[in-house]
Amino acid sequence: MSRPPRQGREHWGAQLLADLVATVRILALALCGLGSLAATAMAAPACPPPPPTATAQALKAAPRDRGLLWRATREGRSSYLFGTLHVGKPEWRRLGPKTAAALRQADVLALEIDIQDPGVTEALARPRPAARLPEALQQRLLKALKQACVPAESMGELHPVWQVTYLSVLEARWLGMDPAFAQEQLLAAQARRQGLPVVSLETVATQTQALVPEAEADSNQLVAQALQQLEDHSGRRVLRRLARVWETGDVAALEDYEQWCECGADASDRAFMRRLNDDRNPRLADGIEARHAQGQRVFAAVGALHMTGPLALPRLLRERGFVVERIRWRH
User: Fold this and answer.
1) φ and ψ of 80, to 5 deg
2) How many other CB atoms are found less than 10 A from the CB of residue 280?
3) Each residue of 221-240: pLDDT tens digit?
4) In sequence order, what are the residues at sequence separation of 6 or more whose Cβ sits closer than 8 angstroms to the Cβ of residue 137?
5) What would the pLDDT profile of 71-108 be if each residue is shown by its tens digit?
6) For a disulfide at 172, which of 16, 103, 177, 209, Cβ 3.0-4.6 Å?
7) Residues 6+ apart with CB under 8 A from 322
8) How far, in Å, CA of 198 to CA of 200, rounded?
């Protein structure tokens, strides 16, 4: 099959999936009608598969470290940076030995957004102004929802960008992945068992501001390109590679993300990518540094792509006086 022509941000969904799936999951599950989505999916062959289940072999296998981990030391204390993928497979649901050891040494777990924080849930539940798509685009969105077995009425007044991002989440199930097995979920559960506080480095408002364009034309363009990705299934290829790169901790491949994600075709696309990734990193670094300066050893788990680029989090922490070293796996 020939490669479809590049359409700028047509693979923005893979980046959003890597950064926003936890937020979208809460938004979507908070809407009426989605409680029966899994049962609907199992009943209809054309629907995305239900969440994957672990095989007996996977349950017996020894835990493995996955993703990317750095130690950041300053003032006689070590904090940790962990690059995550916000969807996962059942066999990833146990922390590897080095990751678990780092978390045991921490005083606080810092996530982009703690979706179990009542304040986050309250912010997500607040009514937002409705956004209306052009008729042709609205019909494409309705068709995509139907094909994914998601009742259109269950979307309520959810912004179209969030709707197509939620559909991108469901695409992960075709690859045997689901947000229920994301590292953030696993880390948060383990942290709470250890009695560690879990905090958010961002707010719903700051994430939304960065990731949902204010201009209607830009928003519509994102929706159109995301729908193209869903319609031709091309996003699955990008997500499959992203998952493989993350699992093996291949930083070099992550640094070359724009070369294979088909998402940086022109200046406007690159500006969009900067807003998604680089522009958020100083605020994330500020939050990590502030807690470390207060005497806390921080285990900060954020999307792996925040560890790349000119404003990569390891680089920003080095500039703030941390000694930063990569912790590598031996598989």
Assistant:
1) -135, 145
2) 24
3) 889 988 988 998 888 888 99
4) 160, 220, 223, 224, 227
5) 999 999 999 999 999 889 998 888 999 999 999 999 99
6) 177
7) 72, 73, 74, 79, 292
8) 7
